[in-house]
Amino acid sequence: METTRTAGRTGRNIAEQLREDILQGFLSPGERIGQAMLAERFESSRIPVREGLKILEAEGLVTIVPNSGAWVSRLDAFEFDQIYKLREQVESLALRESIDRLSTSQIYRLQRLADDITKAPDAETFMRLDQDFHLSTYAGASFPLLHDIVHRCWNSTVHYRRIFARELQFEQQWATDAEHHLIVDSIVRKDDETAGHLIRAHIRRTRLKLAARPDIFQRSPDHDG
Are 50 and 34 in contact (CB under 8 A)? Predict the structure, then answer.
């Protein structure tokens, strides 16, 4: 019977590290995740490795095929469409619930983040600042489940957002920057309705831009090798 090595990591520890590897782009969509390699890397048996992979599967970051193996979840057109439509609704609600509880210092930080995003020198910096900006606008919402859903959606869409960030043209960057500043302006004015409409349109624009690129979506293989 297989047991966890004393010196090894727990399933949650392994999930945390693999999550970062996926979100940072060190593991690509469709890349196979070898359990033996992970067990060696984390100095553990395969039990916590499987536990970690199941955690990431529940988050939509990993696909596990019984008797075959585990892969970083692929880009899927239907999943993309559904998650982005969910984001449009959920994040609009999160922003509207948040506005009245954001402090002056939090709002000032949002203004600085919006300015910093305009000067992002590369896609990874843009993604980091953009995520910080948007999640910070939702910080005032006092509904933990809402935050959980928002974070799950952001994790599930990281590969799509990376493609969007890498392909931003000057005109698109200008529109994105303008939308960020308009969102901040609506927060300053405590205009939750306008803010909700703005974030919904902001996410929808990304969805429509990527939906027009069917070449980025990979057909799922049989995972038999």
Answer: no
Tens digits of residue pLDDT in 1-44: 343 343 457 989 999 999 999 988 899 888 999 988 888 898 88
Whether residue 101 contacts residue 190, with contact meaning beta carbons closer than 8 Å, is answered with no
Q: What is the DSSP letter of 122?
A: S
Region of residue 76 (phi > 0: left; psi between -120 and 50: alpha; otherwise: beta): beta
**Angstrom distances, CA of residue 121 to CA of 126, 129, 134, 154, 166:** 7, 11, 19, 22, 11
pTM: 0.82
**CA 127 and chain centroid, separation:** 10
Among left, alpha and beta (phi > 0; psi -120 to 50; other), residue 223 is: left
Both structure tokens of 82: 């559904």
pLDDT at 170: 66
- The whole-angstrom separation of Cα 192 and Cα 95 is 7
Residues 6+ apart with CB under 8 A from 38: 14, 18, 49, 52
| Euclidean distance between the first and the last CA atom of the chain, given in angstroms as a whole number | 27
Please, are residues 214 and 161 in contact by the beta-carbon 8 Å criterion?
Answer: no
Q: Which residue has the tokens 């609009």?
A: 92
